[in-house]
Amino acid sequence: DNLHLLEEGQGILREELDERIAREEFRRPRESLLNICTEFYKHCGPRLKILQNVAGEPRVTALELLDIKSHMRLAEIAHSLLKLAPYDTLTMESRGLRRYITEMLPITDWSAEAIRPALILILKRLDRMFNKIHKMPTL
């Protein structure tokens, strides 16, 4: 709806409109993926623990919902959105990114050494983002 109003001539330059459309096309699939993965991880994690307890076999190794590559890929997706966030308020308030950071990161078991680079990637980008926001005179 907003893009339709912009196209009708609300005084927006064509380049700015193209930039907004490009940002939306960049943001939307990444936001959706983070949202879906967070929902899956949040609801299936407790269920997996229940199923492991029901199995009751000591031979059963601890299963993970997401492997190392998946955690790293999700962190890279969140990283790409966090790069854009200081310059785009819609990215800053995106539901998928917010849920990934506030719901999935805290419940992930970061004790495994192999997945820590994903957490470090996110934390470093958050630090840089806050520094950029702090230096912006408009904010």
UniProtKB/TrEMBL annotation:
Residues 1-139 form the Protein UNC80 C-terminal domain. PANTHER family: PROTEIN UNC-80 HOMOLOG, UNC80. Signal peptide: none annotated. This is Protein UNC80 C-terminal domain-containing protein. Pfam families: UNC80_C. It comes from Cirrhinus mrigala.
